[in-house]
Amino acid sequence: MSQTVDDFWRLSVDAGLISPERRGELDREFRTQRGAAATSKDLAKYLVERRVISGYQATVLAAGHPGPFHYGPYLVFHRHSSGPLAQIFRARHLPTQHVVLLRFLTGERSSDAETLERAAARAAYAAQRNEPRLSQAWTLVDLAQYKFLVAEALEAAPLAVWMAKAGPQPIGEACRVVREIALGLVALHAAGEIHGAVHGGNVLRHANGNVQLLSWPLVGDPLAPQSSVCDERAIATARALGEQAGSSSPEQAATALCVAPELLVASSEPDARCDVYALGWLLLQLLTAPQQSPTAHEVTAVLVLRKGAATPWAGAAERLPSQVQKLLSYFLAPDPAARYQTAAQAAEALRVYAERSPLTVPAPAPAATAAAYRAWLAVQAPAPSSSS
Length: 388
What we know:
By secondary structure, the chain is α+β, with helices and mostly antiparallel strands. About 45% of the residues lie in helices and about 10% in strands. The chain contains 15 helices and 9 strands. The protein has a 6-stranded antiparallel β-sheet.
């Protein structure tokens, strides 16, 4: 049975998106404009155009579901279906009108009190971090039936998408971009965390050239038993492909190339030098801008060479100036001991080459509602007194 106009109105009211009084006003206007023959699809389009509901909300209502859209003080209005934020929801915090991202927690571990307590503590400390080069976590919300982590909303495209269109970058600009990410890693490493997947898909590039590295809880497993690695997916993909035991899309396979050689051994534990290696691979990509993602077979071939302590990146870098090749060698050395040992060392080395490019592009100004939201959070969840 097809959905009627009255069905759509009823669902909109039941979902708490429109009050009964507002429905009456809008219904009279809608019927005057669209006529008696208008359908529920016409109504959905009308309400979206009037910005009464969002496109995502209209799609859910058209499927016959009244949401839910309200989760405590948050109203969900969009679901990311692809890209690095896939399956993460965009929502408005109703008391302050601030827009945030929600990552819902599912599975058995989301019901474990100790796991939730650890995630809540991690979010509380991350919320105090003032590093614009990293995505910002805010808090964990436990509504019994629904649990989710809240992070700052981001308005930027993945660096990988931009690189594919922009082509090879000048040395100064490439080094500036990677230096910014390295400085973000300095803050992450200081908190005892390793990123584990620094690649173009996990870096967002703003229109003014500013970059942000996606970090927990927007990447990886938000309820991982240990919190030292933000995103283990690239490591897992690389280990499978390195053993020629896995298959993946070209995009997924490409992320495995950021994984340091020592991590291809299952018993190896990531450290800061693994992220330094990933920075080097990203720098190489910015300088050479490959036109298409490698196949899983091609990635496997590279990873097998890496396991043999070879340097398969040298061919791609052979047209670069010798000093840049030397710089890359300190990032991409097969032996971790031969690399820059910290992200801070890497950032300082890049600064020399980035001198002709603005070293720091100002971060986007915070939303006008950000201060009010921070104040609301401070009342609801006071800042922790010390690090755990």
